[in-house]
Structure to design on (222 residues):
């Protein structure tokens, strides 16, 4: 399985906040967390290209970055796109979610990313993507990548992913009624990769309620 991996400047080994304006760089093979991802996926998987960009650059030039990523994935003949994991890094999470959504829609290949539940990228893209719950600690990198790899393989094979609570991904936002697993009765249903890509199982009412909850202005503090 040929994979293209997206990383921000920090996980791509280019520096911290001082390198946040870094323009996209392409490297053949795995970089940083990608090497660990290859290990957990086994010999059948290979990261053929890594795309690295600064968080500020991605936030300010997401359209141009998306075009570049789509081009690189097509050129690499990739069968899977992985972004992150991003943990709590908000700009990283928003960019990773946007890129995954675009790749899934435009190229039709499986995509997977990982973020902490608090990451703003989750609210933006949880309805469209499988987002593994990474938690906040980077020390959980191997565990998170193992979960991402397991979901990626199932997506590639068009297999059922399983319930969010069992498979390790964040449930889709919905009407807000929560079960013990952290999702309402609609959200805790599970679908195969093909079903998620072709359309949502939720009712129109759940879509409306979820959207309203996201758009509703926050109550002023104090």
């Amino acid at each position: 399985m040929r994979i293209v991996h997206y990383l921000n400047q920090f996980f791509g080994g280019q520096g911290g906040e001082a390198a946040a304006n870094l323009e996209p760089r392409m490297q053949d093979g795995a970089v940083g967390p990608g090497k660990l991802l290859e290990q957990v996926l086994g010999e059948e998987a290979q990261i053929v290209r890594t795309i690295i960009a600064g968080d500020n650059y991605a936030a300010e030039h997401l359209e141009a970055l998306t075009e570049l990523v789509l081009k690189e994935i097509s050129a690499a003949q990739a069968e899977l796109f992985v972004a992150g994991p991003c943990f709590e890094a908000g700009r990283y999470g928003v960019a990773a979610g946007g890129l995954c959504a675009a790749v899934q829609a435009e190229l039709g290949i499986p995509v997977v990313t990982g973020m902490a539940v608090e990451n703003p990228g989750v609210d933006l893209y949880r309805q469209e993507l499988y987002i593994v719950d990474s938690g906040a600690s980077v020390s959980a990198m191997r565990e998170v990548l193992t979960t991402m790899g397991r979901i990626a393989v199932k997506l590639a094979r068009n297999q059922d992913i399983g319930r969010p609570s069992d498979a390790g991904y964040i449930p889709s936002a919905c009407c807000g009624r929560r079960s013990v697993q952290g999702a309402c009765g609609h959200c805790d249903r599970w679908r195969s990769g093909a079903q998620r890509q072709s359309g949502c199982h939720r009712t129109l009412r759940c879509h409306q309620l979820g959207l309203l909850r996201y758009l509703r202005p926050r109550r002023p503090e104090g």
